[in-house]
């Protein structure tokens, strides 16, 4: 037989639930305000005590209301925050299960794709999905089985709020950890994000891909083309993350196509160059700012090649066999993009200073006068040479692959004019915050 105290508690609960059931939009908003204010941070047992062991009854009403009203995009934030109090409470697994049984995950994912829903409401949905994913492997699998990766990735690409995009990154990072059944699905979803139009989404996808790559352990063939295309951005923070990912990928089975792709980017296609020249001829005002993606890729490829070469002499030797010297010299002759000239010159300096066979062939191809200018001015060479010297670089035919077959590129045959390489020099010394202003074009 229930005590008078218990009967009073039950009566209060029933009265509260009846008030909710009979309340209109404004009244429910006030109820939610009060609930959020008084129950934020409470544990599961504390919520049960607050609702006389009937908290699940109120949670069911909240989720039902959410499923009825979410299509309109009206009043979602308070509903989602209230549900979040239940789901994030300590010792509240029963609430999570009840939420999922009513179709909570599908509702949260559908909210992400609705145009009528505000960005803040979508961010609350992402936070609830984080709570679900962080509850364990089976919950991560449930999100993925509900086509969650696609919905979440599309939302990341389309979101206009960097703060919200960072919340999405946290969710994707959670989904790739401890989720062996679907970790490849998340990995592929991140790769699919790389061509999107949002620089922030690209940056976050590249960051998360580095983690995902370590977890998955194998590569998807499409990652090479996608990451190389990401180098064509004018956003240096994206370019930085792309190069960091490239540094990781050279240790995987895509090493050869990746290096080939980087070397090939040093020479933009004739069609692209002709189109660019025509545009500048017709509109001279664009000459200061108009650089096609291929020129941005060219400059970034030169930067990446130098970073990789500094990081590993074995990788540097592989690139020599892929004609990197010839292509770097050609990039130095690109009078339409001074940043390509500068970064290619820096990269070539390393190869000349490190490999005697490269020094010999470059000196012979450039001629003494141009070679002396190269040694003296380095990355500023492009400001010191005339059109004839630029043409010499652009049409060079240096081919040291055959010479390499006859040479033994051991440590004894390497040049170290400045002594052992400082570990600090092996770092990414062309960080985007220290980049030349022209590269922001």
From TrEMBL:
<dbReference type="InterPro" id="IPR016024">
    <property type="entry name" value="ARM-type_fold"/>
</dbReference>
<dbReference type="InterPro" id="IPR011989">
    <property type="entry name" value="ARM-like"/>
</dbReference>
<dbReference type="GO" id="GO:0005886">
    <property type="term" value="C:plasma membrane"/>
</dbReference>
<protein>
    <submittedName>
        <fullName>Armadillo like helical domain containing 1</fullName>
    </submittedName>
</protein>
<dbReference type="Pfam" id="PF17741">
    <property type="entry name" value="DUF5578"/>
</dbReference>
<dbReference type="InterPro" id="IPR041090">
    <property type="entry name" value="DUF5578"/>
</dbReference>
<dbReference type="GO" id="GO:0005829">
    <property type="term" value="C:cytosol"/>
</dbReference>
């Amino acid at each position: 037989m229930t005590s008078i105290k218990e009967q009073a508690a039950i009566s209060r609960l029933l009265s509260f639930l009846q008030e909710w059931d009979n309340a209109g939009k404004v009244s429910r908003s006030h109820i939610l305000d009060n609930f959020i204010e008084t129950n934020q941070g409470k544990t599961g047992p504390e919520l049960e005590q607050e609702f006389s062991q009937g908290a699940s009854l109120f949670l069911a009403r909240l989720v039902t209301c959410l499923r009825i009203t979410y299509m309109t995009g009206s009043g979602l934030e308070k509903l989602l925050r209230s549900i979040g109090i239940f789901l994030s409470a300590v010792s509240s697994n029963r609430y999570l299960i009840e939420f999922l049984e009513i179709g909570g995950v599908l509702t949260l994912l559908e909210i992400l794709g609705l145009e009528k829903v505000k960005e803040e409401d979508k961010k609350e949905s992402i936070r609830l999905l984080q709570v679900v994913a962080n509850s364990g492997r089976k919950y991560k699998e449930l999100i993925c089985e509900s086509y969650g990766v696609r919905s979440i990735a599309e939302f990341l690409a389309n979101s206009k709020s960097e703060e919200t995009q960072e919340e999405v990154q946290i969710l994707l990072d959670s989904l790739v950890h401890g989720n062996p059944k679907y970790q490849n699905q998340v990995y592929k979803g991140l790769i699919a994000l790389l061509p999107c139009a949002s620089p922030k989404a690209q940056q976050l996808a590249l960051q998360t891909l580095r983690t995902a790559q370590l977890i998955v352990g194998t590569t998807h063939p499409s990652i090479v083309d996608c990451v190389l295309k990401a180098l064509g951005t004018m956003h240096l923070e994206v370019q930085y993350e792309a190069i960091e990912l490239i540094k990781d990928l050279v240790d995987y089975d895509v090493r050869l196509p990746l290096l080939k792709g980087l070397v090939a980017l040093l020479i933009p296609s004739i069609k692209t160059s002709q189109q660019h020249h025509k545009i500048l001829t017709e509109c001279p005002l664009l000459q200061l700012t108009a650089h096609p993606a291929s020129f941005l890729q060219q400059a970034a490829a030169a930067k990446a090649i130098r970073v990789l070469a500094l990081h590993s002499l074995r990788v540097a030797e592989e690139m020599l066999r892929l004609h990197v010297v010839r292509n770097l010299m050609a990039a130095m002759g690109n009078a339409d993009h001074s940043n390509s000239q500068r970064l290619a010159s820096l990269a070539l300096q390393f190869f000349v200073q490190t490999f005697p066979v490269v020094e010999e062939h470059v000196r012979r191809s450039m001629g003494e006068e141009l070679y002396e200018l190269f040694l003296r001015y380095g990355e500023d060479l492009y400001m010191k040479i005339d059109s004839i010297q630029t043409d010499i670089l652009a049409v060079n035919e240096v081919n040291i692959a055959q010479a390499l077959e006859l040479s033994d590129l051991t440590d004894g045959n390497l040049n170290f004019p400045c002594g052992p390489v400082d570990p600090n020099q092996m770092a990414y010394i062309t960080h985007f915050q220290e980049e030349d202003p022209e590269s922001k074009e």
